[in-house]
Amino acid sequence: MATEQGIVIKIDSETAWVKTTKTSACKACAARSSCHSLGGGKEMEVEAINRAGAKVGQKVVISFDTSPLLKATFLLYVFPILTMLVGAFIGQQLAPNFNFDTSMLSAIMGFSFFGLTLLFVKSRGNKLAQKDEYQPKIIRIIKQS
User: Fold this and answer.
1) Same-domain pairing of 8 and 35
2) Using one digit for the tens of pLDDT, what is the confidence trace for 41-95?
3) Helix ranges restricted to H, 1-145
């Protein structure tokens, strides 16, 4: 589980917008669609589930569960490549049965599988992004002295 600190700048009904500093972990984060960079710099805004009841101006700790992010990373990067390879293999095996050029049918099938997988990943990714486990959460409020 990864954590970051930030300051609450805005509150919605069940979420809060937290201003935090962008780290190197942000590049690989599947929840990065809920973050917005400010002015191209290191500062960014993160929309997080506000179960801690944080208020505007409070310093908070936000948490990102990493295990669902690994699933999302596999779905986004590895799965399309694997299906493209499977499609190319199927095309190569079917080509002699239909008197097609092996390379041509392999390429057509590979890219067809890849395209269909991208459509699947896009629809599945939108559904996953709505789940709480893929969204950052405010886990505690830091007491200011």
Assistant:
1) yes
2) 578 888 899 989 999 999 999 988 777 777 878 888 899 999 999 999 999 999 9
3) 66-73, 79-94, 102-129
